[in-house]
């Protein structure tokens, strides 16, 4: 069983129902099925099938969706790649992750012998590239798809998942997030981010509808939500912050807003509750390797600020040597549970989990342990700031020092920021360097790549 098979099953009773609404272009279940079926028939003459790694390289949401299902239709393993990668890193990813083919909607600067076929005449803007990887990955029969995470090196690695490792939990997560057959869910961003991919497939599982605007335009998001009678929202907290800043009136048909990847601060949650009064607001904590771990509701956020909640049903969480360990059966291949992804934290007397950052995010300065995550949290609370990341650097005289990289929405200077922090942080926690940037480097999972900050 794979996700093309699931799409076929759902389509049987929902042929004329909208599956995707992308920048106001509407595609029903039957149209998507026929598009996928047509492409996979043509590709059968160009590529091998049954267990090959297919890297999908595109910034188009539609192309990512179609290529994902086409790969599954050919019984291959789709892996959606983050689009803003250099060719050098893309080649390293292909080489080190045993990628057999790349499918893209743009001509890529690979060697001529790596181009299998220019299919843009038969299928609009589809190019296929073949690489001299191993024949296929071992023990592929239970592998349905792959997703990238950052390893200990600069080259992202593929994590492989079975169909059941996500679908067996869809019923539980959809019940918590209020996703059902009637759901019309708004989301934004690339499907290379596993949170987006999981959300899309969980809505498909119910036979619901996905709505997206591809640009980072919160006012367009609001209009789309109204025009399409959206019932659910999935956005990361930094995007929810943007949404809360432009929402000017109540939208009463939203029944759930769920988010992950970052902390959701109380002031943003309050603003969202005012604008979407009938919504259940949920923050979850998860990991690409382990899927969902804990979650917290809006009411609980008021009681336990900065907590990421208590475990999802069937998931066990405990602390060992300050590290968070998780016991779950919904993990990627190659993981032995209980497992840690090296996040640090603690569980309070009521069973709520609090994050302190990764091991590398805890630095020792003058004998005091400092959490870079805590510093980021306090800076992100400043209303003029859109995004922030803290990093340590070595000072030859004073040891570890702290630098912050900040994206601002309104005018604010370094002195104002540091003055606001003086009431929230210890003197030793105050950053020594502040950099104002227009964007932050992302890894293949769509998350901030701290290793690349040194190049800024």
TrEMBL record:
Keyword list, A-Z: Ligase
Ligase listed as a keyword: yes
Statement: the UniProt record of this protein carries the keyword Lipoprotein: no
Sequence ranges assigned to domain AMP-binding enzyme C-terminal in this UniProt record: 374-447
Source superkingdom: Bacteria
Domain AMP-dependent synthetase/ligase: 14-321
GO BP term (any one): fatty acid metabolic process
PANTHER family: ACYL-COA SYNTHETASE (PTHR43201), MEDIUM-CHAIN ACYL-COA LIGASE ACSF2, MITOCHONDRIAL (PTHR43201:SF5)
Family: Belongs to the ATP-dependent AMP-binding enzyme family.
Protein name in UniProt: Acyl-CoA synthetase (AMP-forming)/AMP-acid ligase II
Species assigned in the record: Clostridium saccharoperbutylacetonicum N1-4(HMT)
